[in-house]
Amino acid sequence: MTDTLHIIGAGLAGSEAAWQAAQAGVPVVLHEMRPKVGTFAHRTGDCAEMVCSNSFRSDDDERNAVGLLHWEMRAAGGLIMQMADRHALPAGGALAVDREAFSAAVTEALRAHPLISFAPGEICELPGEGRWIIATGPLTSGALATSIRAATGAESLAFFDAIAPIVHAETINMDIAWRQSRYDKGETEEDQKAYINCPMDRGQYEAFIDALLSAEKTEFHEGETAGYFDGCLPIEVMAERGRETLRHGPMKPVGLTNPHDPATKSYAVVQLRRDNALGTLYNIVGFQTKMKYGAQTAVFRMIPGLENASFARLGGIHRNTFLNSPTLLDAQMRLRSRPNLRFAGQVTGVEGYVESAAMGLLAGRMAAAEMKGQTLPPPGFETAMGALVNHITGGAEAKSFQPMNVNFGLFPPLEAARGGRKGRKDRYKGYTDRAKEVFSAWLAAQA
Question: What is the pLDDT of residues 113-169, one digit of tens each?
């Protein structure tokens, strides 16, 4: 037991942790309850299954914190980024993947590794001995969540995370919709036409908002509160904050010209992003929802171009459990009260696929070093990974701790950075240049 690292959960964080530890020469046993014990959101028993979206968001490593995190994971030999690059789809400046092919490739790579073995089945209690990483994600099973609460002496926090619907491409009316990335972003024509756009005039938009607000919604269970993560708000919740909110969010019309009617500016635009390599499935960007299924079909078919849409998957909502990590975890991502247990991924309070996988990467490397009698410090706070792990293990205010995406607000300020909107691009480039230098030195010290 003490010579082997055990990891609970084969999502993006657990898969990356297993890969990093095994690459460092440490035997790994990966415990995954799926498919024997399923969740409402997952469809398979494969590793690193992406359930909410197929996007890893921006791939700009010079002026975007998410793109910088991509760069750091690639530099560290991350499995998740290797397979994301291998199964990438056109998505303008974003990194989107064929989610089924991506998940299958991650699973194949892990199963082929000589130091990784699989132990199927649910782990219902926190282990009392051995070296473990708990990477069970936002859908941690009820039994294990109860055990975590008992061990930490504190109630887990929770918010609700929603899943966007997926449409069969052949049912989109291209006499109304058109293909274009916002501002024609992308180096190739395929990238510049990576999204399908559905236009709305003012009357259509107002009718759509009315339908959203009056649609039948999923009810919460007694004792639950709707503490949504602001980066993943259901569209109806956004609409409740103001009728123009969606026009300035996922339905903003800027950077798009309708070739069917180029002289008329759309009042709002709904974008769909390719969801598989065949181009047969598209997800509605930013359309997370808690509407009931019947209401979803009726409301979404009000969108011009989707009047006859057939849905491969409708939206859903689920409870997302995470630790109050600033009070519970040390800088090595270990549970302070039981340091043989590390936590990684969304259960630690990071938000997003890339952020979760990055915390798995760190946990796997730190655990492997510890098992070799060494201590691996986290990367400097100037890096994307370092900024994230610092945030969840002490940088955040514990009383108001909420899930967080990576962003430049988590980084130490630059000493000589020009302020204001005009200086933002230079400032962001300064952040990424500094981060790459610090992260490269961190990697070199491990060689």
Answer: 999 999 998 898 999 999 999 999 877 887 888 888 888 876 666 666 677 899 999
Residue positions forming the annotated binding site for FAD: 9-14
Q: How many Cβ atoms sit within 10 Å of the Cβ of residue 92?
A: 22
**Cβ(247)–Cβ(253) below 8 Å:** yes
376 close to 366: Cβ distance less than 8 angstroms: yes
Of 3.30.420.40, 3.40.718.10, 3.50.50.60, 3.40.50.300, the CATH number of 5-156+323-444 is 3.50.50.60
Query: For the segment 20-50, what is each residue's pLDDT rounded down to a tens digit?
Result: 999 999 999 999 988 676 566 567 778 999 8
Please state the pTM of the whole predicted model.
0.82
Residues within the annotated binding site?
Answer: 9-14
Query: CA-to-CA distance for 447 and 435, rounded, in angstroms?
Result: 19
Residues 303, 305, 309, 313, CA torsion sign: negative
Tell me if 127 sits within 8 A of 68, measured CB to CB.
Answer: no
Q: Is 90:190 a contact under the CB 8 Å cutoff?
A: yes
Listed in sequence order, the residues at least 6 apart from 298 whose beta carbon sits closer than 8 Å to its beta carbon are 211, 215
